């Protein structure tokens, strides 16, 4: 892990994904020094191609001081269009609030660049965490055999979080759905409007968002039935199996997948923390808490997981700065109180939307439509949320 002064380890963040880096940036803005421990040997900035950020996410990025740089990297999307390919009608509506799609690399690199160079330690994989019985300080054990005893620990290590296990959160679950993502470059310019288009047929959904005049981000969500194990590793297997599913989709959709950059293709079995587990889960114990996917991993059906992690970062840093490191326990309780119902609602809407997509019968579809319209009358109301100032 190299030579580091002990007080560098007062605040330790586990995981240098979107949420871990955003949390470090937010803390730095409040003059709280932190160190991020990342298991990879370098920034994980190439996986997942791109990410859609809605108005609520931009508000958080504004607070982190990185929004203006990032705005230059993705065009503002003006409209939503939903196309039902099995006889359903087409719906068009103006986009609610600022919406842009960013390369994940741009987002991760920009957050990283906002931090002092030594604040992320690579090659540090957390193995376990426990509380020292005498001091009640958290003791972090890493797989290289080293251990540290920071004042404060924030677990931002994603959906398979060790810190979440330490907090006794219930295990995450898998949707019966998976997601394929990719980027397609049109050297002579693409023909698409500044719109977020979604094409739905049976239990398959394809989304398409232009990022600039040439580059287009797309995703495909479909039932999970991996016939071909190569799909986890081999981009061509991802491409061919996706095309096979979408054989009766419009030519422009198939062509987009055919020309996608092989390096950008990824396949994910979608994981979530059940909304009802979020209602009662213990998200902090003493001076240990979780944020981002470690707290509330959710399906991508609303495109809100990453933005919810950015909101967490702002709220967490604000509370920690207000109460001070010596009262971190109180700060974490306030943070959890502020975040709980927000992430419960986001996760519930995401869950119903995913279950509607995967529903095997008309009756189930009807049930999820009714639940969504009863509980979430304004389907894009979640983007109006404001996480507040730092
Ligand atoms: C198909 C798909 C599409 C999506 N689309 C959108 C979208 O459009 N908009 C949106 O807002 N969200 C979207 N999301 C969700 C978004 O990608 C996640 O919510 C977000 O990336 C989570 O960030 P995170 O930092 O919490 O976790 P992660 O990105 O998982 O980062 C965790 C980090 O912790 C590290 N780590 C893990 N374990 C350890 C350990 N033991 N020790 C040290 N380090 C560790 C990992 O290497 C990683 O760097 C999508 C998700 C999927 C699957």
UniProtKB/TrEMBL annotation:
UniProt GO molecular function: FAD binding; monooxygenase activity
UniProt keyword annotation of Oxidoreductase present: yes
InterPro entries cross-referenced by the UniProt entry: FAD-bd (IPR002938), FAD/NAD-bd_sf (IPR036188), MOase (IPR044560)
Domain FAD-binding: 8-344
SUPFAM superfamilies: FAD/NAD(P)-binding domain
Keyword annotations: Monooxygenase, Oxidoreductase
Family: Belongs to the 3-hydroxybenzoate 6-hydroxylase family.
Protein name: FAD-binding domain-containing protein
UniProt lineage: Eukaryota, Viridiplantae, Streptophyta, Embryophyta, Tracheophyta
């Amino acid at each position: 892990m190299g030579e580091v002064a002990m007080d560098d380890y007062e605040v330790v963040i586990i995981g240098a994904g979107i949420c871990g880096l955003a949390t470090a940036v937010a803390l730095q803005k409040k003059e709280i020094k932190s160190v991020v421990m990342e298991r990879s040997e370098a920034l994980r900035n190439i996986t997942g191609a791109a990410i859609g950020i809605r108005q609520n996410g931009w508000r958080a990025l504004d607070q982190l001081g990185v929004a203006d740089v990032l705005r230059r990297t993705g065009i503002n999307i003006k409209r939503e269009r939903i196309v039902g390919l099995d006889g359903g009608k087409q719906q068009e509506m103006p986009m609610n609030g600022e919406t842009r799609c960013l390369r994940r690399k741009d987002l991760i690199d920009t957050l990283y660049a906002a931090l002092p160079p030594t604040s992320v330690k690579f090659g540090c994989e957390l193995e376990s965490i426990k509380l020292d019985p005498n001091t009640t300080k958290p003791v972090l054990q890493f797989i290289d055999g080293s251990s540290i005893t920071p004042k404060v620990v924030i677990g931002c290590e994603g959906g398979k979080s060790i810190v979440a296990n330490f907090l006794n959160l219930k295990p995450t679950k898998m949707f019966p759905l998976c997601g394929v993502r990719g980027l397609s470059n049109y050297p002579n310019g693409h023909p698409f409007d500044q719109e977020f288009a979604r094409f739905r047929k049976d239990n398959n959904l394809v989304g398409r968002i232009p990022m600039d005049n040439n580059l287009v981000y797309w995703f495909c969500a479909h039932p999970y039935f991996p016939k071909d194990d190569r799909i986890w590793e081999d981009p061509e297997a991802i491409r061919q199996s996706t095309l096979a599913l979408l054989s009766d989709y419009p030519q422009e959709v198939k062509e987009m997948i055919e020309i996608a950059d092989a390096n950008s293709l990824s396949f994910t079995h979608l994981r979530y923390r059940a909304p009802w587990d979020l209602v009662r889960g213990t998200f902090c114990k003493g001076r240990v808490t979780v944020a981002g996917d470690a707290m509330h991993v959710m399906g991508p059906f609303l495109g809100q997981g990453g933005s919810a992690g950015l909101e967490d970062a702002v709220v967490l840093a604000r509370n920690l700065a207000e109460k001070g490191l010596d009262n971190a326990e109180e700060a974490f309780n306030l943070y959890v109180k502020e975040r709980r119902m927000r992430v419960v609602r986001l996760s519930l809407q995401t869950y119903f939307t995913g279950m509607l997509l995967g529903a095997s019968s008309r009756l189930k579809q009807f049930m999820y439509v009714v639940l969504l319209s009863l509980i979430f009358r304004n389907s894009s109301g979640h983007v109006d949320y404001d996480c507040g100032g730092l």
